Protein 1
Amino acid sequence: MRVNRRENNSSGGDLTYRRPDARVDDVAFDVTLTRKTLSTPQVRGFFDSDFRPIRVVIIRPRQLGADHTYAIPRPETKR
């Protein structure tokens, strides 16, 4: 388990990174108030990082509704 640590993306010209709240094996966890989707830059950044998670789990307060915790799977790559 890694908590609040940089996950680098060395695929571009400049080294960039994202910082998930937690990482367990190949799953990133993000605790937030905001609903996030695959098109959210932060989520895309997690998938583009060098550790390449298989899913990102979004955890939101229960008071925000039925979809307070959900997983976004890694998108399939085009062949």
Protein 2
Amino acid sequence: MHTRRLGSHGPQVSALGLGCMGMSAYYGPRDEATARRTLLHALELGVTLFDTADSYGAGHNEQLLGRTLAAHRDRITLATKCGIRSVGTQGTSGGAVIDSSPGYIRRACEASLGRLGTDHIDLYYLHRRDPGIPIEESVGAMAELVREGKVRHLGLSEVSAATLERAHATHPIAALQTEYSLWERSLEQDILPTARRLGTAVVPYAPLGRGFLTGALTMLDGLAPDDYRRHDPRFQGDNLTRNLALLHHVRDLAEQLHVSPGQIALAWLLAQGDDIVPIPGTKRIPHLLDNARAVDLRLTPGELDLLSRALPRDAAHGARYGEKALQLLNT
């Protein structure tokens, strides 16, 4: 597994991390035994960046990682997030409110340390920003945790270029987590150039378009009743039909190179810069293995250009979140 650095002075991590959210919430029922096997297999493949949040399964996901990876703590970069306060019961995907107040950030960090079973968090993100609280106050509280040794590096998730700039002036921001893929390229206009000027790495979540770019999801019938994608605007009706038509260039290139469409999508993303560290999420070993092979796939300049032209910034049909979730973004 190749490695990349998170930010100018951040940790060296595997070029592909592992998004762990789906092991606990949003994508059908949990299978903890399968999830644990997948986490340990990721370690064997050389994955060192594991991404979770206190809101994933209302704490269940952090506990899962803590129990499974405790014996390998010195080999991994553990990333978690605060700022979405769950109001459901532990292990469920109940309601949530945004809270980026300094007091809550401190309480959330202490709780995450306990669930993760560790004395420090390698990368601590503000999951969502409360617009009523100055970002300087939130990042200032997180910086105190760094000074106390409870956190090593800071990150933000789904913020605008202006917010990132203000936050970075308060404390260096090692990583910005946001949605980025062949299917969602809106950050390229303002956010990505700002992150690069500041020396902040970009950690794309949903780098496979929530499974869309693998080519395997052509209808919703086979999804679990509580699967998030049943309500995702891009997977609804005509939007899904029109979006599927965008995939033929990805499929054709995958056939020519004898690889999977998902590997093509990840290889394109990895080729956008050494400061890009995608975290494709999965709870199954076959998908993990398929994703990992993308690290060694080198697309030619012509192939990269073909893909970029086939799926330009505004290609996707439908908003990337429902109306309520869109209101929580600062981008």
Protein 3
Amino acid sequence: MSTTIPEHAIAVEFHDVTVAYGRKPVLWDIDVCLPASKLIAIVGPNGAGKSTLIKAALGLVPLASGYVKLLGGDLHEHRTRVGYVPQREQVDWDFPIDALGVVLMGRYGRLGWFRRPGRADRQQALEALDRVGMADYASRQISQLSGGQQQRVFLARALAQEATLYFMDEPFAGVDAATERAIVEVLRAIRASGATVIAVHHDLQTVSEYFDEVVLLNMRRIASGPVISTFTRENIQRTYGGRLTILDEAIDAMRREGLGP
């Protein structure tokens, strides 16, 4: 287990979680508690099970063993309080819908599928688009947006949901520098509101700049806790198996932030 956290301050608890595709384990005996009101990175090499860990929490893949608690209960109990931003590759961007329509989908968890969004919901969606710098693109078809713009729209959809807990699968992947800065600002605003963000992240050089906590994963939990004490050269090396170029770049970035070991 990671450092003990008071129960009321736990956003997500994984207990003895194992996930297998066929007979091949992808995650093995994951035990970790993730604190509330933090920005939390899940970091590890390709094939480490990072996206699978998020999908396990969201009930998108079956568990071979163990359980996951969200906000002290199960997913069904808190579904309307949980938001999800998937990888862009998992989305059908040719679906005929505009940006505002995508963001309004984030309101359905509160409305139920048989109620139509009203004026207040539309206003919430427009405000969410404005927060991510996409208000001027509300009527634009999503297929006509750039990759960075599409990512902002899906972030706005999550914001419109007004969740307490957000899961994001590589929110910075394939976006330009301006979009990355915009996403970081939104994530910090989410944290300031008291909500929690758990994000799969691949850029080791920005972990210490963007996140409060980190989970180092390679099928098993290697280490987890505050970035300043957990994101060390030793733990990174245990996670990545001694890929020294990656390690040195990450350590240099940490030192620039004054967090180096």
